[in-house]
Amino acid sequence: MKTGIVLALLAAAALFAVQPVLAHHPFAAEYDVNKPVTLTGTLSRMEWVNPHGWIYMDVKQPDGTVKKWTVEVAGPGSISRRGLKKTDTVDGMSLVIKGYQSRRDPTLANGRTLVLADGRSFYVGAVGGPNDGADR
Prior knowledge:
- This protein is of the alpha+beta class.
- It has a single domain (about 30-135), classed as CATH 2.40.50.140.
- Helices cover about 25% and strands about 40% of the residues.
- It contains three helices and six strands, in the order ααβββαβββ.
- Strands 1-2-3-5-4 form a five-stranded mixed β-barrel.
């Protein structure tokens, strides 16, 4: 009886340990390294959440329309260690993001570099993407 309970607990622990790995997606499955994008626009909002942060921005198109983009970036701990602080971003500010477009969603990208209006540049990419920080 005790052996059965111990085995059940070990099996449950193993499943919980594997779950975060299964939930994470590799860069190449979601984004296309052959579709680099440079987005110049206005920050709608930035979510400093784990495991990935999100930047929402409005990008004016050549015809005058505005396309709303969603950009996945590294988590808040990684971004902060690279020098970007929450106070550096304000809704409505101008910014440039370089990254890679999603394979499935034409307005979703994985951000690698964020350039603020004052010229400061930050690597905001998550580990696992192309160059892993070498493209700063």
